[in-house]
Sequence to fold (810 residues):
Amino acid sequence: MALVVQKYGGSSVATPELICRVAERVLERHRQGDRMVVVVSAMGDSTDHLKLLAEKVSRAPAKREMDMLMASGERIAMSLLAMAITDMGVEAVSMTGGQSGIITDRVHQSARITELKPARLLKELNRGRIVIVAGFQGITDDEEETTLGRGGSNLTAVALAYALNADVCEMNTDVDGIYTADPRIVPNARKLDLISPDEMLELASSGARVLQSRSVEFAKKSGVTIAVRSSFNDHPGTLIKEMEGMEEVVVRGIAHDESEAKITVRQVSDRPGIAALLFGALAEHHINVDMILQNTSEQGATDVSFTVKEDDLGKALEVCQNIKQEVGAAEVLADSDIAKVSIVGVGMRSHPGVAATAFRALSEAKINIEMISTSEIKIGCVVARRDCDNAVRALHAAFELDRVD
Amino acid sequence: MALVVQKYGGSSVATPELICRVAERVLERHRQGDRMVVVVSAMGDSTDHLKLLAEKVSRAPAKREMDMLMASGERIAMSLLAMAITDMGVEAVSMTGGQSGIITDRVHQSARITELKPARLLKELNRGRIVIVAGFQGITDDEEETTLGRGGSNLTAVALAYALNADVCEMNTDVDGIYTADPRIVPNARKLDLISPDEMLELASSGARVLQSRSVEFAKKSGVTIAVRSSFNDHPGTLIKEMEGMEEVVVRGIAHDESEAKITVRQVSDRPGIAALLFGALAEHHINVDMILQNTSEQGATDVSFTVKEDDLGKALEVCQNIKQEVGAAEVLADSDIAKVSIVGVGMRSHPGVAATAFRALSEAKINIEMISTSEIKIGCVVARRDCDNAVRALHAAFELDRVD
Fold:
């Protein structure tokens, strides 16, 4: 008898019919003897619908009120799923983030979990009930409602799996698992049975949108095993956990991300503290910077390029323009016509030559590399957005990722 | 500087545009120096939408889960209104029923308020903020969410007005106030400046759908002054409060209700305990009975007629059929083609002859009266539904209600 935390995303509970299908899946596991905790996101595009309503009444909605608003979406989904399961004959009870014991700090819209108090949840489980939890939300010490930011429902699931010492945290999603590359781009991409948390982290932050890095980080730190599965079939999916023998594989997969934009601040004074000034100002405005590249100095000045989420481009440009004089820059250029393609694999650490193979493959495909950033287990290349798909295909072929290892 | 509790119904906050209009109305009062607490219902038909979702996933949704689900509607409205007001330059903060201190018993879907703890609400008011409260909902001692049942948002408003010792509780609705009759039926119906709670209670339960009786009852008991006003203009509306000199008016208004149906149980044994048996069975099935009429006995048997909400007719008939043998009835007849027309006024108490005038007016209009029930301040007549409008007009004219007193 395992204790299983399952998470279903918005597309899995988008309609009453789909909610009933999820109810059946949960019940099947319950009948097999598993104790079930189910975390749900808001139905389909209801979150976008709520955001749109907020935009219509306010230019800059107060974050606290946004949390009050957004938390409704998950509450609707959770109560409907609880009703559906109960209707099928097994008692289910829904819980808000607060009721399930997710305690957070007071940073509205991107709260961090500070404590887990699952006493009430455990009580319901021990009464033989299936517990449905509203994802994405928590509560502060003084009972203010908060939301956990992007990928919050995944984080809820992993955090509860940790707090309850669950056997597995299953992420039920609209894909079968983690692939060596996006199958829509690379038809012979292969589903991975196993991937390490570190690789998953790089894939997640490099645009493999199945899981947000926060939940993988939490799982890695806390030793929770995640399974990425499809909501729509019973295939085993991909397990995210550390395992022996994983080093043998050099490259695990190719990720791509078309949601970033590049900013170049030209002719910045090449003196200490300038980078701190620039990126400090961006951080103050809560703009996440991904890749940073600084060219060699010529005549006391240098170009600094970096990438941000395309959504943040306007705000980031404003910050750069305001600070332009202070950092002595000549001009600020923006390019949203880019894509990031990344090669990920823990084996890279001990295998030199991966970068060379990658650059050769891109060059043979006549693709120009605009920026490069590397980590121990990742090589990321910025290319023109029109070259993205070709770059992914070229790299997937170069590392023979279609072959079963 | 008055402390004002305002309530806006679903039709007043049905769209983002309407929410912004409400925000402007609230702000105007705030600028005039009033301290504002605003209770909102769910947007437009969103409550019906949520109910429909529940019906699609469950044949008999668990009441606790229904409360979790339904409470979302008001939360969406409250946060949007708070955002809209803040966007216009005055700080506003939204509160759930629980946060505003509405403590209830555990009867899900029709909870009763057991305690009011508005400390947190007062704190926010004292910080100069406008407080928006989700209507219709409360919280139990052990932090389970509940809803207050029909007319719950009005009850929230009155209860908070009482707890905060507010100067007035304004019900902003889609009508201008309380009229001597429905202006759609009687074009020269007159808006009343003032009406007593008792009269309002009779009007509310007799189909003047502006206010539910629970909120008026609460207001009467606790001495809260209610103002019924339009959300869409600045007319003063109607005040519901006790005032001297009100006795002089004999008849205050004519109410009508086309939502009831009549059941007649024929030839019931005329022995003690039979009525208790019949109406006990109906009560067990949560069917509210309005008028009850029992004819004189002939040969040890009597006819019992009563009215119920048309929605409950099917269920009520079932109950009657099941109990038919036990009460020794010959047959059970149903008639949903009825209307109830009521004459209401506190002055009636001391003015004999009102009933005679009413019956004469209906007779002259050739309208047959099927049932009559009277209270100290009301005379209710059941007529054929097709006669309803004519009956209202005949009574309105007979008591000269178009004349200003």
Q: What stands out?
A: Residues 225 and 288 of chain A are 28 Å apart (CA to CA).
